Amino acid sequence: LRWLWIAVADNFCCFSVHARRGVDQLNAWFPNGYRGRVHCDRWRPYEIFDVEQRQLCWSHLLRDVQAIIDRGCAGAPAATRMLARAQAMFASWRRFVADEIDRAALHDATVRFRAAFRRFCLAGRSQRDDRKWRALGRDLLRQGPAVCHFLDVDGFDPTNNAAERALRTAVLWRRCSQGTRTETGSAFVGRILSVVATCKQQGRDILEYLGGALLAHRRGLPPPSLLPA
User: Fold this and answer.
1) Cα separation of 62 and 57, whole Å?
2) Which of 159, 165, 164, 154 is nearest to 58 (CA)?
3) What are residue 14's DSSP bridge partners?
4) Which residues contact 73 (CB under 8 A, 6 or more apart)?
5) Scanning 49, 104, 171, 188, which has its CA 20 to 30 A from the CA of 110?
6) 224 CB contacts (<8 Å, ≥6 apart)?
7) In angstroms, rounded to a whole number, what is the distance separating the alpha carbons of residues 3 and 60?
């Protein structure tokens, strides 16, 4: 069993196949820490990044709220109302992205939603009849600042959908190939996926890059850089 990791930035993409799902791969990628912003889900290893750096993925959060509805337990009515309010909040966000309103207007349009969402989490944490609602409320209150950074600070997106989309090719390849069985195979998969995805992001010819890398290897030269020009 191995895990496929991905990190997507504005101008490059990095894949890795690792034997574990914990912090080992993150420590390998960021041995000296990281000062940028991180979009991720609620998986605990991501908490090596400060809560002020993280934006929790709202695609995942909406699925978590929907799961409370689907269970039909005590939290279902509150979750149904919250899901409707979240859709209204994202309507305001889309207007902001389209430059129809500014940041101040976005704040005014969503301030009630944020207060309501916090009350939803508090109510979930304090009740005992719905364990999914309780677990979600407890965790989101613990990571409070990471819930709505995108509504307040430039440079944050509400989802990690860029990484989810970039994973699609790798997941389909894994399904066809049945994964890797050696360290060498895992290293190749991580590197070739990184090259292909990064070249696509930068508008570079993939075969041209690979040809240059092979020629550099045969001549004993450093490979061409994948860093953006």
Assistant:
1) 9
2) 159
3) 7
4) 129, 130, 132, 133
5) 49
6) 209, 212, 213, 216
7) 19
Per-residue confidence (pLDDT) for residue 8, from 0 to 100: 95
Q: Which stretches does DSSP call E strand in the chain? A: 3-8, 13-18, 38-40, 54-56
Please say if the pLDDT value at position 2 is more than 90.
no
Strand, helix or coil at 36? coil
**SS3 label, residue 75:** coil
- pLDDT value at 167 more than 80: yes
pLDDT of the residue at 197:
95
- What is the amino acid identity at position 4? L
Task: For residue 215, give Cα distances in angstroms to 8, 32, 128, 204, 223.
Answer: 28, 33, 64, 17, 8
pLDDT in tens, 176-206: 988 888 999 999 999 999 999 999 999 999 9
Query: What amino acid is encoded at 214 in this protein?
Result: L
Across the chain, mean pLDDT equals 94
Q: Which residue has the tokens 């695609």?
A: 59
Is residue 33 classed as helix, strand or coil in its secondary structure?
A: coil
Q: Distance from CA of residue 110 to its chain's centroid?
A: 22
Q: How does pLDDT run across 87-121, given as a tens digit for each residue?
A: 999 999 999 999 999 999 999 999 999 999 999 99
Tokens of 149: 């950074």
- From residue 164, alpha-carbon distances to 6, 59, 80, 105, 179 in Å are 9, 10, 26, 30, 18
